Amino acid sequence: MLQVNNLVKHFGDVKALDDLSFSAEDGQITGILGPNGAGKTTALRVLYGLLKAEQGTGLINGVDSQISPQLARKEIGIFPDKFGLYERLTAREQIAYFAGLHGLKGDEKEQALNDVITKLDISDIADRRCEGFSQGQRMKVIIAQALVHQPQNLILDEPTRGLDVMSTRILRDILLELKQQGKCILFSSHVMQEVAALCDKVIVVANGKVAAVGTPQELCERTGKTELEEAFVALIGSDEGIAA
Amino acid sequence: MIKTLFTKEFLDSIRDKRSVFAALLGAFLPPIMFAVMMTFVLEESTSVDELYITIENQQQAPHIVELLEQGKILHADMPEKGKDFELDGETVEHSKITITFEDSFAEKMHRGEKATITLLTDYSKKGARDEVWRVKNVINSYQSQLVAMKLVARGVSPSLLSAIHIEENDTSTPSSKSALLLGMLGVMIMVAVFVSSTNVAIDCSAGERERNSLELLIMQPVSTMQVVLAKTMNTAFFGIVGATLSVVFTAIAIPFIPLHKAGMAFNFDFQLGMTIWLLLVPLALFAAAFQLATAFHAKSFKEAQSYIQYTVMVPIIVPMMLEIVNYKNEVLSYIPIFAQQQAISQLIRGELDSYMPLLAGSVVTVITSLVIIKVIANSLKSEKVVLGL
């Protein structure tokens, strides 16, 4: 369960978040849509406890990340906006590192490592150094390290960027499986088909505010359009920042 | 948690060829540089080169020829062209000095008459005066011995010849002669600590930021303090390895340096090596914190490199200057870098009276490092840094 309430945040004179509130429930995939600069990444960074909001709260399973960020972060797996692997570590070492950061130790850690490696089907590359991995392999390693501590919540910031069709499908399957397990998944994207196909709930963000919330179907109905892309444009009032 | 962080940092650095190479370079360079420099300086200052002159009518004065040879002034035929000639397959330089004993030299000496030696040379030639002085010095000392003996034979004390005796005393002691050079050795070992850890410091801060892995790291349930501590420990570890190797290599290299030629005595024994090493441990921590503080401000490896090449001047140039002017001040013993420079300098010169300043300096260095670590940890929390990711 992820929840942000009434976030307000300025960068200089620019109002990045303007009383932004939304929530992502367990057992659902929630998508955040918004043009570039709408405040998606800023909102997520506030939720991670990386940035301080001037007002409002960011709750992860009810823990306020503005007050106790480290405790709150234990309950999330993050697939960041820009991700870099440690090129000189093997995939296994990389995942083990993040398991360690989440406090896993000894047998428990080994077990978690083996589970996640099997689950993502990366045993063939697990003991190879990350340098030279394809974009798809990198994505799997990042997902594996985000999931190794079995968090209740998974946050993905534009996860399909740069992925080929096969990797995108794999990612989609992983997300659907996690949803089946009752996890809470929040992801931001520019790709409409992606959002339309996966999300149970879409939050449209523009100018640091929530412009609309609903299922893809509802949003289309509300705006009288047949495609989510058209609905999105109608909701934010411009076609800025859409990558189809 | 720190263990997890440190293990990863260490694994990451030890697999980075550039970091390992830099650490080794830092370790090897000072002792080698010092050994080469010392050997060169010593050879230059102490060895007397052979001087080749042409001696005509040698049979007239075999004693003098022998004395000249003892003074490494040897006979060689005047080369026909230029000043170089072949000797045992090597090209050597002829001084172009000719001394000629007159034909009746031996006979005149025998009779106690004034005998003549003709010295022929081009005085305008560079260094000619020194060479002539060497030749004349040998002949003059032969003459004064001869005169003294003649006086004794006539029952006159030779001391009448000299009314004044100039007593020459060289106040430079063996250890103060070597002090400057040995002080430089101390500075170089300190530099090794910095050089060995620079690459690691940049790689795990600016490098990690450049490769986009720093953002994800600080999003994890760890405090920035833990992250910075682990990175500092790893960087300091490389500095310590560099320092250790550098001290060991120096200990190995010193016996091969012909210090005795300059009348220097320097014993780089186990105790001295150990004390210097112990002093370097807090310095390594400081070097790590100092370089990380610089490198964390940079967004890329290259940017960090260009910052560090300037900031690292401070810990290198300033101690070197202090060493050259041999400046000592109580206060300096309580400032990181200077504390170590002063302590190592005193240790090497054998001037250390008390271990107290060493201890105090080390404590201050550790505290300063921790303060820097805290500052870095706080800066990683700042919005500016997060947004710069």
From TrEMBL, chain A:
CDD domains: ABC_NatA_sodium_exporter. The keyword ATP-binding applies. GO terms for molecular function: ATP binding. The keyword Mitochondrion does not apply. Residues 2-232 form the ABC transporter domain. SMART domains: AAA. InterPro entries: AAA+_ATPase, ABC_transporter-like_ATP-bd, ABC_transporter-like_CS, ABC_transporter_ATP-binding, P-loop_NTPase. Keywords: ATP-binding, Nodulation, Nucleotide-binding, Transport. Belongs to the ABC transporter superfamily. PANTHER family: ABC TRANSPORTER ATP-BINDING PROTEIN, ABC TRANSPORTER ATP-BINDING PROTEIN NATA. This is ATP-binding cassette domain-containing protein. It comes from Psychrosphaera aquimarina. The lineage of its organism: Bacteria, Pseudomonadati, Pseudomonadota, Gammaproteobacteria, Alteromonadales.
UniProtKB/TrEMBL annotation, chain B:
The chain crosses the membrane at residues 20-42, 179-202, 235-256, 276-295, 307-325, 355-377. Its main location: membrane. Signal peptide: none annotated. It is a multi-pass membrane protein. It is found in: Membrane. Keywords: Membrane, Transmembrane, Transmembrane helix. Residues 29-372 form the ABC-2 type transporter transmembrane domain. This is ABC transporter permease subunit. It comes from Psychrosphaera aquimarina. The lineage of its organism: Bacteria, Pseudomonadati, Pseudomonadota, Gammaproteobacteria, Alteromonadales.
